[in-house]
Amino acid sequence: MALIVKCSLIAKHICKEVIELKNGKFSDRELERYSRQIMIEGFGENGQRKLANATVGIMGQGGLGSPVSIYLAVAGVGKLVIVDYQSPEISNLNRQILHWEEDVEKGISKVESAAWKMKKINSDIEIIPKKVKVTNENIEKVFAGVDIVVDCLDDFTPRYMLNDFCIKNRIPFVHAAVEGFHGQMTTIVPGETPCLRCLFPIPPPKKSTFPIIGVTAGAFGILEAAEVIKMLTGLGNPLKSKLLIGDLLYHFWETIEVCRASSCTVCGHL
Ligand SMILES: [Zn+2]
Predict the structure, then answer these.
(1) CA–centroid distance, residue 193 to ligand 1 (Å)
(2) Residue 209 C-alpha to ligand 1 middle, in angstroms?
(3) Domains, the chain, ordered by start
(4) pLDDT tens-digit map of 40-78
C-alpha cells in the first residue's frame, strides 16, 4: 500500500513537471543551454518547447544514427527512442561516432553505448534505449507514441517495414541512405508526400558490405536531424515531396521534385 502511495506521488510529481514544461517553464539552466538557438528568428522559447515536448524514434545507431542522436540531444528534443539490436565492431568506428574503442572491447550493445554518452551530452532529456530487432510483429510497440521517425538504416528491407508502419499510423518519417561519398534523403508525410515505395517500388539489390566513409554519414545524418527540428518547430521548408541527392566528392547537390504514385500499394489509397 505504502509503495502504491509512493508511486502515485512520483507520478503526480512527473505530471506536474510535464505540465510546467508544456506551459513553457524552462529551468534557468535550460534557458542558458538553449539560449543561442532560442534567439534564432522564429524559434524562440515556443520552438524550444515544441522540441522539449516531442518524442523522436531513431531506427539505427550506426553511421547516420550517431549524428542524428547527438544533434537531437543537444538541441533539446525531450524524448529520444533509440533502436538497434547490434553491438559496435571495430570496422564500424570509421563512421559510427557514438561508439568508441572501449565500447567494442566491453562488448556492449550499440544502444547502451549510445545511451551513456547521450546522457552525458544532455542530462535534461530522456533517452529510451531499445535493444531489439524490429519486426512487423513488434514495431508498433517499439515506436509507440513517437511524433516522428528517423531512418538511420543501411538496408531497404527494414526501411520498407518502417515506411509501411509510418504510413499506416500517419507518422512523419525522415529517410536517408548513404554509400561511399554520396547519399540521398527526403521527408515523408503520410497522405501528403510520396512514400518510400512510391519512390523506389523495387528495392535496390542488397549488398552485404558496401563502401562508406564517415563524413558522408555525418553530413546526411546532420541533414536528417535538421529536418526533424524543422518538422517539430514548423520552421523553414522541409524536404517534403523532394529528394535531395548529394555527392561530397564532386560537390554535386540536386533537389528533385517527386510525386506520389496512385498505384502505390501502401499509400495510394490515402
Ligand atoms: Zn507510396
Answers:
(1) 8
(2) 28
(3) 31-257 (3.40.50.720)
(4) 999 999 999 999 999 999 999 999 999 999 999 999 999
